[in-house]
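Margin note: ligand = adenosine monophosphate.
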Amino acid sequence: MICLGIEGTAHTIGIGIVVKENGKCRVLANVSRMYKPEKGGIHPREAANHHVKQFPYILKESIEKSGVAIEEIDVIAFSIGPGLGPCLRTAATAARSLALLLKKPIVGVNHCIAHLEIGRALTKCSDPVLLYVSGGNTQVIAFMAGRYRVFGETLDIGIGNCLDKFGREAGMPFPAGPIIEKKAKEGKKYIPLPYSVKGMDVAFSGILTAAIHMLKKENIEDICYSLQETCFSMLTEITERAMAHTEKEEVLLGGGVACNKRLQEMVRIMAEERGAKFFCPPNEFLVDNGAMIAWTGLLMYESGMEMMMEETKVRQNFRTDEVEVKWR
Ligand code: AMP
Ligand code: MG
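Resulting structure:
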């Protein structure tokens, strides 16, 4: 079975084409374009316009790369939520058009679950606790009693958003995460920042404000270093707590911030110290991508979760635990 998946929840429009062979996921194509605001944060309407413009090109490119004819595609999947309304509607419209044109079934995929499923497909883990860290989302997710449950999450902004907002104040272009990572390597002094873990949850806005204040007093490398150390320790702590609670022995990373080597190192050490295994797919599949939507859509379709057109309305606030997981 071959599935074409469209990702379009925020800054990235992506198309992935995957096939299930001998029960395994093979990615035939995974093509993305990212909208980068000239100044300020993501403007949802502008991001959606970017996606509309790029869609025909990435469709052509992904089909060519995949080596399959468009008629051979069995099912169309798209990111139904959570995300920014205009972006979601653009991806959904593209998916509906393709499904109608090709006379193929359609499935709407939960974006957060897709990060977890592509990790399971491409690494050797089977039942992990996922630390999902991206621009808008920060969640600790694991499978329990038929659903993916959220064991901890941010109470305010996503970790990526925290890094990007700090970067903007420090004069860095979007996305700031990779630049902060580079600068942090040069940092020598740890400057205490408000460490904010509340039970299983975290909060970043206080740390962000404190770090921005530091810009006047401290050097940028030390602030970047301290910001990373503080935020990533908090994330590692709640991930470990979820592992202890669920008694799971695997931890998986997902989301763009998981490209950060220091975060990977912290979570790996935590896992090793408790005798658990650490998994992290390649960067291409950590960031938002079409392949994860295609693969999750394929699993859903196979388990009978095809949608009627009327059911494909986007869900901006779609929660991870609303999905009844029939494929596990
Ligand atoms: P996503 O929303 O999952 O596509 O991820 C985008 C977010 O990942 C942005 O907020 C980026 O700043 C962040 N990001 C990307 N690479 C890194 C990195 N190496 N370190 C920290 N954050 C990163
Ligand atoms: Mg994401």
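Residues 111, 115, 134, 255, 288 surround magnesium ion (ligand 2) (CB under 6 Å).
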